[in-house]
C-alpha cells in the first residue's frame, strides 16, 4: 500500500536518488549530447545534483516546496548551458505549485507547473526534440492517474513511464530548438539528452514514492 501523500522525506529521497542516477548515467548523457550538442549535459547535470546534495545536507527543509526551491536555485547557479535555467525554472515553478504534502492531484499540478516553466523558458513545444517531449506526456499521465483516483506513487510511476516513452519518441525527431537544431535533418536518429535526463529524474521520483 503506497503512501496517501508525499512529504519532505519523499522529496529528499527523490533528490538523493536523482543525484545517484545522474551520476550513474553521466557518461551516457555526455555521449547523447556529444552527438547533437555540446557534449556537456552529463557533466553539467552531475555537477548540479552533487551541489544540490551538498546544499540540502546543510539545511533542514520543512516542506516539499522548500526542497524543490533549493534544487531550483542550486541548479540555476551551478549547471551550465541551457539545462540549468530550464531545470531551475521547472523546479521553481513546481515548488510554487506545491501546497503541503502531495496527493496524486498535487503531483500532477507540480509536473504541469514544471512543464509550463520549461515551455516559457525554452520557448519550446511538443515535437521539437526537447525536454518538453518527456515532461508533456509525464504531466498528462499524472493528471489522468489523479483523475482515475490513483495515489501519488501511481501518478509518479505513470509520469515516469510516459517520460521514458517520450524520450524514446525524440529519436526520430528533427530538432527545432537549441544547438541540436543547427544539425537540421542530421539530428534525426539521436535521442534528446534533455528528454533522457528528464526521464531519469522522474523515474527517481517514482522510485522514492514507491519505497515509502
TrEMBL record:
GO biological process, alphabetically ordered: glycerol catabolic process
A Pfam family that the UniProt record links to this protein: Dak2
GO MF annotations, alphabetized: glycerone kinase activity
PROSITE patterns: DHAL (PS51480)
Keywords: Kinase, Transferase
Keyword Transferase included in the entry's annotation: yes
Record's keyword annotation contains Transferase: yes
Superkingdom of the source species: Bacteria
GO CC entries: cytosol
Domain DhaL stretches: 9-207
NCBIfam families listed in its UniProt record: dha_L_ycgS (TIGR02365)
PANTHER family: TRIOKINASE/FMN CYCLASE (PTHR28629), TRIOKINASE_FMN CYCLASE (PTHR28629:SF4)
Protein name: Dihydroxyacetone kinase subunit L
Organism this protein belongs to: Georgenia ruanii
